[in-house]
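Quick question, first post here. What does this chain look like in 3D?
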Amino acid sequence: MMRLRDIRDYVAALGIAGDENCYCGKMEDKKEKSIGIYPLKNRQSGSIPLGGVKNGSYGVKSVSLLVHWNRSPTESEEAADALQEALIYCRDRAVNRRTIKFIFVTYDEPIPVDTDENGIYEYVIECLIYYERS
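> Answer (accepted):
Ran it through. Tokens below.
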């Protein structure tokens, strides 16, 4: 099973935000130029192959990524676009003990969610991560 921590490690390795600025579960101090990885609330319903889970070759993890960048709308949008592009082109990427087969991003572009209470621009990217079962 793929964990949020695995996805956090993949996103951190992209180098868009520093490793110390990539979070899973909760963004405690909300530093600028951070990315948070959360479980997607409207998850895809799971499918169990004939014969049970052991006969399935892949799993799906539904996640939401929050790009919490800075006070520049242009730089914030560029960071969100760079992350979305990296997700779209991900193929057969080994992360920890799992292999991400591909990532399906649900919208054509990152979703702007305006600014937080400190004027930091934020974007959301929702996606389905298809990974190889071992």
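Strands lie at 22-24, 34-39, 58-68, 91-95, 98-105, 111-115, 121-132.
Residues 73-88 form the longest helix (16 residues).
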